[in-house]
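Continuing from the previous page of notes. For each protein in this section, the sequence appears first, followed by its structure tokens. Read the first protein now.
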Amino acid sequence: MATQNPFALAYKTAREFAIAKNPKGCREQLYKCLGYLLDTLPMCKTIVDKAKCRSTIDQIKSVISILSSNGINEEVCAFFKISIVSTPPSEPVGKSVKITPPSESTPRPTTPVTPKPTPTQPVATSPKVETPVEPVVAPPISSTPKGDSVGTAPTRPISVPPIVTPKAPEALVPPVMPRADQEWSEAVYDKSIRGVVTVHVPGGAGTGFIISDKGFLLTNHHVVVADKYKNQFHDEIYMCFSDSRRMYELKFIDADETYDVALCRFTPSSLPSFATLPLIPDYSTLRPGAAVVLIGNPVSQGIAPFTGTVSYTCNNCGDLVFSAPSNPGCSGGPVLDRNGYVVGINKSLTVSVNGVKTQGFTNATPMNQVKKLLDEWKKKHNLSF
């Protein structure tokens, strides 16, 4: 049985919220739909597909704008092809709801996408070009992760067909037994998974991880910033775990653009359970050649581990550089060593140096620098981790 497409799931959930006259819940789910389409747009191969995708993006932006100002009105109901009724859905909103995709009367398959880092143009002011790993979808509003925002388009009733991902054919190969060197990453991932979350903001998403049982969480500056030029941050920030779609509210505390680190906080009592990830006690013990695992949510496919090797513990830019693959959505994810200690916060890819394309250069903020920022924020905001 084919896995349900995330766009279809978010669309159906948004429709349920619209029927229940819950504009906030409906808007959050449409942000997911919007982000999924924005992530799909660069993969469109033809002008027609791109035009259709852009049209749907504009229409969803319009409905999100209406939800923010007018709530569930006639235009929103027309978007979902529903009538304004007082009867609530069969299951209470906020509870676990069985989701089915929108009507398949006009299916529109999309080209299967193999996630990979997207090269960008080199920065003119520096010979080394780094591309931040974008917040994903519900991925970013634009291909540039810093400064995600949702625009406004003319309102009009639309119909959103489902996006169906073809099921990949089964490979006729014998099963591969795990190697001994894979066991450590499996153990670290299993131990850390309840401490890694997807961070959702209007129009985008990234990754974050919990560092304190008092509810403190770290992610990237570019994940939570709304307007970097005005130094404004999103008012609505939420997180969810890999095994649930339930959202928990996050409060922004502070951030540093230079090192691309942000600190947020949630209410611990609101969560049934969670884990805290320990920070490496002595960063100087990390050596080039050490094995590490990055945990993130690539292109909104779900929290997953990616293994690699440390190349530089501190390069010319002061970054931890390692070879694990990173994709949009992995921004803010923890980089852990064999002992399960966080050694850095994933933030960007180096795609070229002096005009020469590069591979295997994933960048993270080293944990020794993160600890300095945490010490500063403790004093500034009178915090206790």
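Done with the first. The second protein uses the same format. Note its length before scrolling.
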Amino acid sequence: MRKQTLNEKISKITTRDRLNSKSFACINSLLLHSFISLMQISASIYSSKDKSLPEIVTELDLHEVDLFHVDCNDDEQVFSDIAYINANSKTPVDLHIISNTPEKYFSKIAECKIRQVSFQYENFASEIQFPASEVQFGLAITSNTPITVFDEYREVCSYVLLMTTTPGKSGGTFNKDTFRRIRQFQKRYPDKSIQVDGGVNAEVSFILRNLGVESAVVGSYLFSEKYVGTALLNLKKQVVGSHFLLKDFMLMDDELPVIQEAELNFEKALLEIETYKMAFVLITDTYGILKGLISNADVRKGLLKNMDNLQNIQMSDIINPCPIAMNENKTIYDLLLFIKNINFPLQYLPVVNDHNKLTGAILFTNLIKGEL
């Protein structure tokens, strides 16, 4: 029997039942269990301490890992391992070179037909001149390096590799400031992709998927689990609760469309929605207290209500004065419980502090499966 798509399941609910709180709860439950993004998992092959390379390649291929991550700490021997991988697997190699003289590896990179290669910026003795190639080049930077160093390489590099732990070493702890750096990079380089390496486990992966990260390098978590397949499922598809707080990874208020209520008018609301392309605008008072939200749906309702005379549209016709919001100190676990119990589909969620002052928002667009 053909498996139903998520769209078909939702359609069945909406045609079988009237749209009430129960049916919306069912829809939200389906969305939660379909929180999958296109984020790839790049398995760090040298993180396994008790298996041979042939065993690692066979096991990872069995579970259809996306990429093999190979760290080259100025060691040409890794190219022998890459040659073995290429001869025995169709899974692409994701190479990370940590060297003061990365140019000496250019010919070997071309010979091995590697899909993508990142170079550790902090090890450069001088500016690197990348060769013309079909290889995707990336720039790897540590947590202490400003993302603006990407400027000088943006013409030749298609992605950044954000290191959250010591480059080339496995088993570190994820640096939560990386969430902020991801948003900063996306804003400054919207046409470039982001990869993350270091301390990624299931709970971190859930947030990275939410933020739209293209791929995550995973080592210790992947090989420390009893079954690699279970670890991969958790990394790519599971909705995982976490000790991380909403304020750790939310969009900050200065990254959002916000209008003070004293300055609010219909035209300004439309301009903010169009400029930020988030399908909503948040309303605050002069103290930053959340006073309302205007969504695309609210605008449509206002237009329909005043179709005979659009000049009569009032802010009260389009503003939701009591939008749902969550406290910034709530955990992801709290967030998941909340989503399961609300009675309408959720695409974004304002975040406030203990005094109801707007501090940010959570967007869910990157987590919704592509078939929606």
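What the second structure shows: Residues 1-11, 13-18, 30-37, 368-372 have pLDDT under 50 and may be disordered. The domain at 40-240 is CATH 3.20.20.70 (TIM Barrel). We return to this in next week's lecture.
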